[in-house]
Amino acid sequence: MEWTFEEEDLAELELAQDPQEEDISQEGWDCWETVLDVEGCDFETRQAAAERALQLAEEGDGWAQYVCGWLYEDGSILTLDNYKAMQYYDEAVGQGIAEAYLALGKLYLSGDREVADPWEGVRLLKKLARAGNPFAAYRLGKEYITGYYVEKDWDKAKYWLRQAAKAYHAPAQLVLAKLCLRSDEVDEGSAYEHLKDAAWNGSRYADALSQRAMDYRTAAAFLGTCRLLAEIGQIFQEHTMLPSSDEKIRIDPKRIRNSKLKMRGHNVRNREDYGPTW
N or C: which end of the chain has fewer CB atoms below 10 A? Predict the structure, then answer.
């Protein structure tokens, strides 16, 4: 069975707290908020903020270096360039910016052969996850499920997903619910509990499933239907194994940008994680 995750960028993105709570410059933070404010700022204003972020990055501002990496990876203001994104993320990692660890680890695992470094990507994610970052733990759990860059290992997948779930990470709780429905290891009771936890922690997808479960009156009947729908959904899955050609794998930056901005609700302090499906 192939496992896929919808809107995985939304589920994994970690946003910083208020600059007063972390070692982030106020000016760098202002640049970050401006480049994200598509509705409130015109393109020229956002472009000026991006240029200022580049200046701050050259002056050694760690948060600005992270912002520049994001801008080059996003491609909506600066020209898409994953190699430059990698360089800026790496500089920000050197200054201890947690968001940069996550972004660089994901970039190394992106499949872009210009920057791909799966071993280093997994190492960075493990370092961040062991420090208590639920987003990195969630990504590691996914890697051990898919087996793209590490050997498939259900026990390790569940270990990292549980670490994320302990931090109230709704997507991890939702994945754990679905792991409980594997045909060779069905645990409907635990699946239902994980589903309720995910709904409680803000997953709209899990909340909808929970409400539907109430309509079915029993968790067993509902989850049995979920298993059937999951199998049918494989027919229409869009995400497949990485191609073996030498072409670089590119994701439409407009699609990524729109998804990220939708998640933020145009407010970077909001942390809304959406549930994966397969």
Answer: N
Provide CB contacts within 8 A for 143, sequence distance 6+: 109, 122, 125, 149, 150
CA 1 to each of CA 19, 22, 146, 240, 259: distance values in angstroms, whole numbers, following the listed order: 43, 42, 10, 11, 27
Quick one: residue 231, left, alpha or beta (phi over 0 = left, psi -120 to 50 = alpha)? alpha
Q: Give dist(CA 226, CA 213) in Å, integer.
A: 10
For CA atoms 101, 105, 108, 112, the dihedral sign is negative
157 and 180 Cβ atoms separated by less than 8 Å: no
Supply 85's token pair: 């994104």
The number of C-alpha atoms within 13 Å of 234 and in the hemisphere containing its C-beta is 8
Neighbours of 117 (CB within 10 A): 16
Contact 86, 109 (CB under 8 A): no
Q: How many helices (H) and strands (E) does the chain have?
A: 14, 0
Rounded Cα distance between 150 and 140, Å, is 9
How many whole angstroms separate alpha carbon 237 and alpha carbon 232? 9
Tokens standing for residue 74: 């996003």
| Residue range 87-105, pLDDT digits in tens | 999 999 999 898 999 999 9
Tens digits of per-residue pLDDT, 175-206?
888 888 775 667 777 877 888 888 888 888 77
Q: Is 25 exposed, middle or buried (0-12, 13-18, 19+ CB in 10 A)?
A: middle
User: How confident is the model over 109-140, as pLDDT tens digits?
Assistant: 998 999 999 999 999 999 999 999 999 999 99
C-alpha to C-alpha distances, 217 to 24, 50, 140, 188, nearest whole angstrom: 49, 53, 35, 14
The values of phi and psi at residue 169, to 5°, are -85, 105
